[in-house]
Amino acid sequence: MQPLANVTPLKPAARTGAIEVKNVGQVFRTASQQVVALEDVSLDVKPGRFVVLVGPSGCGKSTLLMMMAGLRQQTSGSITINGAPIPEPDPNRVGVVFQEASLFPWLTAEENVEFPLALRGVAKGERRAKAEAMLKLVGLDGFGKRHPHELSGGMKQRVSIARGLVQDPPVLLMDEPFAALDEQTRMTMGDELLRIWAATGKTVVFVTHSLTEAVYLADEVLVMSARPGRIVDHLQVNLPRPRTYDMLSGDAFGSLRDRIWRHIRKSA
Question: Distance (Å, rounded) from C-alpha 22 to C-alpha 247?
């Protein structure tokens, strides 16, 4: 597999990738009850930043991410991407990578990456060229003809990331994309994601339960409370880049991780 360090970086996306969430709330209603999932959530993500959302299970992290993607509408408040609301999915502005790779088993890796372009009627030659470029970027050059059953878990997630990038949106939303991977693969994928982010200039919002992963990846960490989910802390991670595994044992890293953990314990 080709190391990502040898891949020619792409030019950063020209679009800004700014995200603004103002006083957002989400209430789920059934015939017998209503559940307040999110309450008065506000955040401002600057273009090109890598922002991580953490919090206890059930706090609404994934719900918030799906609203940013236009896959769910908030009950109150507003969400804008590049200054405009997002009432429905818009692949020109936002790409999404889910926890499961969700690849079509009957399609090859390159055909899975091409799929969003095929839906939009992009010519076969153009979409194949873009798919090949994205697979090269994520370190899967030469694996385009493989089917999902021929790929490891980490490789499947790389295909999923390539599919999220292929339409070149300025914003990439990632919902626990490495949760199902073993620890070694997860750390490797984190490094490779940081290289992809550096090469493309995307704005990334990343949901995780791993406090170590949050601090290792992020420019900023937003900590959410237990339901109803609210932002209870905003950490600036001023560790130098590129990040290294040696940082994991440093005092600065440990202090940030412990600060997040104190909030989560308090919410439990």
Answer: 34
Q: Give, in order, the Cα–Cα distances in Å from 70 to each of 21, 117, 127, 211, 257.
A: 13, 19, 24, 27, 31
**pLDDT 10s digits, 22-50:** 999 999 988 888 999 999 999 999 999 99
> What tens digit of pLDDT does each residue of 106-162 get?
999 999 999 999 999 999 999 999 999 999 999 999 999 999 999 999 999 999 999
> Could you give the CA distance from residue 91 to residue 171 in angstroms, rounded to a whole number?
9
**Can you read off the two tokens belonging to residue 262?**
């104190």
What burial class does residue 89 get, using C-beta atoms within 10 Å of its C-beta: 0-12 exposed, 13-18 middle, 19+ buried? middle
Distance (Å, rounded) from C-alpha 13 to C-alpha 16? 8
Q: Is 226 helix (H, G, I), strand (E, B) or coil?
A: coil
Cα gap 138→63, rounded to integer Å: 27
Q: How far apart are CA 5 and CA 167, in angstroms?
A: 23
Amino acid at residue number 90: D
For residue 10, give the DSSP letter. Answer: P
d(CA 80, CA 238): 27
